[in-house]
Design brief:
By secondary structure, the chain is of the alpha/beta class. It is built from 5 helices and 7 strands.
Amino acid sequence: MDLFGLQESRPSLAFEWVVRPRGFGGDLQFSNGDHLDTDCDGGYPAPRSSGRRDERMRKVQDHYFQRAKREHYPARSVYKLEAIDRKFSILRRGARVLDLGCAPGSWSQYAARIVGAKGLVVGIDRQGVALPKLENLRVIEGDVAAFTWEGEPFHVVLSDLAPATTGVKHTDHHRS
């Protein structure tokens, strides 16, 4: 059995939802063909490129940044997943969830809270992720491409993966 619960003799998918970025505009594409527009992104503004001072001020003044810190989430991106879950009900009690590219860990932490003690969340990322110890949350430091899973298949696969970029448009275009 491979990462997604596929077997050679049975080519059916073993999970119900795959959530992945649809493009750089912030929209999300779902495996069932639906998409979530940016107008349902939790209401926080898209980041803009500006000076360091402006960026620091925006972090201090940003409602969702402050809320994430109060609720002990590593990043405000958790509210994007919360909006998705409110609209589509992708996370359920007892579900098994795979979070690809899970750093900084907000999505995994949120999913672990929703699926409860009988559920399981497995997050994998190349960089280490420091999250509270939860019985239903496993974080693996490693490459998504080399990940293998011998346990039960996942119900939901979350992915907020993005290629590593250099900032040089031509180079980044050819690497992605």
